[in-house]
Amino acid sequence: MKKAMRNFGIALIALTLGFSTVILANDGDKKDKTNHTTELKFIGNLENQPVFQLDLTNSEEDEIVVTFRDEAGNVIYANTFKGANISKKFMLKSEEFGDTALNVSVRSKKNNSTEVYAISRNHTYVEETTVNKLK
Q: What is the per-residue pLDDT across 12-22, written as a single tens digit (0 to 9) for each?
């Protein structure tokens, strides 16, 4: 089971790093660039529930809307956060979504940009048998 959870964690980290992007907003003046970075990563399990951390880095105050949706498009969680540099942790109750994939959209109102992350879970059953010589 530990191996399966480790593989799940490695897959989510790879997925998160693959979808992390930097968006540069420019209204024509090179002196007035706004940097906006979003990163969603799996940080572990708490009470057998997956925990994710969302880091938002903005050079200016912004309003961010975070929405978690299941495969059918049903909203599981939605909230608005304000600030320049925001870090939020989310614990998902796995009973609510089971093995279905989740989409997390992070929308910046100021930059009018949206980033979407996909969260999927895989379970595997591993049985190991060992033989040790005692004497």
A: 555 454 554 44
